[in-house]
TrEMBL record:
Segments forming domain Amidohydrolase-related: 47-362
Pfam families tied to this protein: Amidohydro_1
Family: Belongs to the metallo-dependent hydrolases superfamily. NagA family.
Annotated gene: nagA
Entry coiled-coil feature ranges: none
Name of the protein in its database record: N-acetylglucosamine-6-phosphate deacetylase
GO MF terms held by the record: N-acetylglucosamine-6-phosphate deacetylase activity
Enzyme Commission (EC) number: 3.5.1.25
Entry keywords, A to Z: Carbohydrate metabolism, Hydrolase, Metal-binding
InterPro entries hit by this protein: Amidohydro-rel, GlcNAc_6-P_deAcase, Metal-dep_hydrolase_composite, Metal_Hydrolase
Length: 376
């Protein structure tokens, strides 16, 4: 059965006014006439964008990835309702046995997408291989990594991204073997220096975890891990909830890092009302748009990717095609997925339909239309 969507379409080559045909879960044809991106949505025409890709998802819909069981099903469904069509389920720093249990629950969902759900592409292992001096909101279970342990965990569910602190003993030597195993190593939760960051990049590290947060900052005489990212990084995550990073710092990162892409770092509080939720072993409070520990430390976010797009366009002033790239295409390229993150013939039919105000109207994941009715 073929489905045709019409409107202003954000393609890899610009915005066109035209149509997109979906067949067998993929985009069959894209056709139309080029228009100025600033005119997208004029006259009430729908805007079609590539589905959002989020590589840093701890939770949503009241559930946390570390719960195991069916938590990831709820999480993947909730984020799909906000336009995320593919994601990486992200763990917390915890005893290795707890991480193993979570990955065992994630494995089957990574192999088969559930109905009304985002595609779970694999796992982002954020800890326990991080600095005890830069935990942020991570629990105090940081340990050094070994290749054997990482590969054993990878047997339970595919680890696509691994966050490490490169200055920890033995970590620099692990980056090359992990890269060769198909795992993208990201620098994060690190007390390391500028030189530590450059050494990790030279060893094969692929990017940075939530740039600016939980890493040594930039000073003109001690440029820190942030300085290494801005000077030499090709890829990095960034949380554009306007709480984790000031808009001015986001602009700096956009100018410096070609493959900068946006993530939510979302917790169980995403898509939920204010109140108390779980983040790993911690209780966190959602209030005034943020998620915090009892001491006020930011603890992940309540951000969804549709709001991330609106922030990029309506607050930071990015043109729509660039904003779409930062919430979709750049992450697909980073993960080596040529058939996601773009509206082009042959790609998976992961499509977000928005109005001129960038409010979500329809979502398709691999051709399946998702129920985006507001949650009760």
């Amino acid at each position: 059965m073929k489905l045709r969507l019409e409107g202003d379409i954000v393609t890899p080559h610009g915005v066109i006014a035209g149509y997109l045909d979906i067949a067998h879960g993929r985009i069959a044809v894209v056709g139309g006439t080029p228009i100025d991106a600033a005119r997208a949505g004029e006259g009430g025409r729908p805007i079609l964008l590539p589905g959002f890709i989020d590589t840093h998802v701890h939770g949503g819909g009241g559930r946390d990835t570390m719960e195991g069981d069916d938590a990831i099903t709820t999480i993947a469904r909730r984020h799909a309702r906000h336009g995320t069509t593919a994601l990486l389920a992200t763990t917390m720093t915890a005893p290795v046995g707890d991480i193993e249990a979570a990955l065992k629950a994630l494995g089957p969902v990574c192999r088969e997408r559930g109905a009304q759900s985002a595609r779970v592409l694999g796992v982002h292992l954020e800890g326990p291989y991080i600095s005890p001096d830069k935990l942020g909101a991570q629990p105090a279970h940081a340990i050094p990594a070994t290749l054997a342990e990482v590969m054993r965990l990878n047997d339970f569910a595919p680890i696509k991204v691994l966050t490490i602190a490169p200055e920890m003993t033995g970590h620099l030597a692990l980056i090359g073997p992990l890269r060769d195993a198909g795992i993208r190593v990201q620098i994060g939760h690190s007390a390391g220096s500028f030189d530590d960051g450059v050494a990790a990049l030279n060893a094969g590290a692929a990017g940075f975890t939530h740039l600016f947060n939980a890493m040594t900052g930039l000073h003109h005489r001690e440029p820190g891990m942030v300085g290494a990212a801005l000077a030499y990084g090709q890829h990095a995550e960034l949380i554009p909830d306007l709480l984790h990073v000031h808009p001015g710092a986001i602009r700096v990162a956009l100018r410096c890092i070609p493959g900068l892409f946006c993530v939510t770092d979302s917790t169980a509080a995403a898509g939920m009302p204010d109140g108390e939720y779980r983040l790993g072993e911690y209780a966190v409070q959602k209030c005034l748009g943020g998620v915090r520990l009892a001491d006020g430390t930011l603890a992940g976010s309540a951000l969804t990717m549709d709001q991330a797009l609106r922030n990029l366009v309506q607050v930071l002033g990015l043109e729509l095609p660039d904003a779409a790239r930062r919430v979709s295409t750049a992450a697909a390229e980073y993960l080596g997925l040529p058939d996601r993150g773009r509206l082009a013939a042959g790609a998976w039919a992961d499509v977000v339909v928005m109005d001129a105000g960038l409010q979500l109207r329809r979502v398709f994941v691999e051709g399946e239309e998702i129920d985006v009715v507001a949650d009760a």
